[in-house]
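Thread: Newbie trying to understand structure tokens

Hi all, I'm a second-year student working on a class project, and my supervisor (Dr. K.) asked me to get a predicted structure for one chain before our next meeting. I've only ever worked with sequences, so writing a 3D structure as a token string is new to me. If someone could post the tokens and maybe explain what I'm looking at, I'd be very grateful. Here's the chain:
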Amino acid sequence: KNKTTLLRDRLINISQIRLVASAFSFVLGAFTVTGFAPFNYFLIPVLTLAGLFMLILRQSSATSAMLLAFCFGLGKFGIGSSWIYISLHTYGGMPEVSATLATFLFCAYLALFPALFGGICWRYRYPGISFHVLFVPAIWLASEWLRGTVLTGFPWLAIGYSQAPNGFLAGYAPIVGVYGVSTLVALTAAMLLAIVTTRWTSKIVSTAILVLTWAAGAYLQQVDWTTPIAAPFRVALLQGNIPQDLKWRPDQLNDTLDTYYSLVKQSDAPLIVMPETAMPLHSDQLPMAYAAKLKELATAKRADIIVGIVEKVPARDGATYFNSAVSIGPSASHSYRKHHLVPFGEYIPARPLLAWVLNLLHIPLTDMSAGEAMQSPMLLSVGKVAVDICFEDVFGEEIIHAVPDAHLLVNLSNLAWFGDSLALPQHLQIAQMRALETGRYMLRATNTGMTAIINERGRILAHAKPHETMVLTGMAQGFTGNTPYATFGNAPVLVWSALGILLGVWIRARHCKRRNLVHQG
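---
Reply by user tm_fold:
Sure, no problem. This is what the structure looks like when written as tokens:
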């Protein structure tokens, strides 16, 4: 009886310890969000990752390690991506309970990738500084890359974004991209852990690696990877501030068209940019008189206007629809068609099986087709302009397809779906990372915010106040040349990750073999 009581008490104590550890890991994940915009405490993710790594290595099983890392991911994505609920319920029309459940399940899915990291780290752990230097950062990189790739990918809140633009590690972005910066955040977190937990020789090595990594990042921020071309020029970015619940209503169409015509009329720049689907109709439905007036205004101002609109293209079996950006003005007309579409937002994946989702959501653009993966920049009066639309700029490996031909990056977005949430500053920070990676200005025209002019170093030169109707006017500069990341993409860091994992597994196997021989002796 006494043994049974002791065993029961021990199990209760273990359960309580695991519960506390899980809760602490969740808090670490939630606190990590303060490293991203709008808070920008870029050192916080280094500290929270170091805490996560310590928790993982102190577990007694791979299952416990996975659970803790899952809780970390649930905290990070549950807080950092909570705006998903707004799009599903407030504007998508999904009932509260269903929207809450869907948001939770989505965040739980994202948390599976940190859980995978935790399980592998614990399973293949081994003593020695190489584990912290090679294996941990390599596995973290692999988990983030998989999250950004599997099922079309959702790389939002990759830990590297927390460093843009002022973190010392942001200096590596033009070389290794956001995933490489994520790797370096994980490396410095692992070095902090090694300083605390390893013997003196390893502490010295870890300190040296940490200091050199951050010092090199600070130096790299001063390097000019690209070269200005021609003279700076004025740009006008239009923020219509059309509420999402009114945007597609037929009785609001004339007001929307009048708003954007008035904003163009106020603009004084050779490049004027409207947001994504600024014209809330199909291209064949745009009144001819309105299109003629807009063309006349562009000609009179000697300005190229980039217009967001749903492009309807006739096809043999009906018509094909593209989420497009079309240029109007003295230059030859160009069209960019969005390539990386949002599942359930712009198309229904596996439609025969999942078409029932449309009964829960009221989303106007669910029959979009994808444009070509490789599209030439628009040749306008200010230079060659590479356009991407909304969610596309989350994928740095796709944005670089237009470089080095493009002199300038332009993003058209409509974030009215997410209200006044963290999505707006987070998306702006993602755009800052794209500017850093390519060494190009990034111009963002959004419906409700954050409309901004970002320079080639990822710094915001001007921005519009969110949720106001206005024209943001400022100066921009074209650039030429290639950054290392624009040349090689993610390939170098992925190769490094694979080699780091293989080497770590090999070192662990040798360590286990040596330990078995000693035990047998």
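A couple of things are worth pointing out once you decode it. DSSP finds 16 helices and 13 strands in the chain. The mean pLDDT is 92. Feel free to ask follow-ups in this thread.
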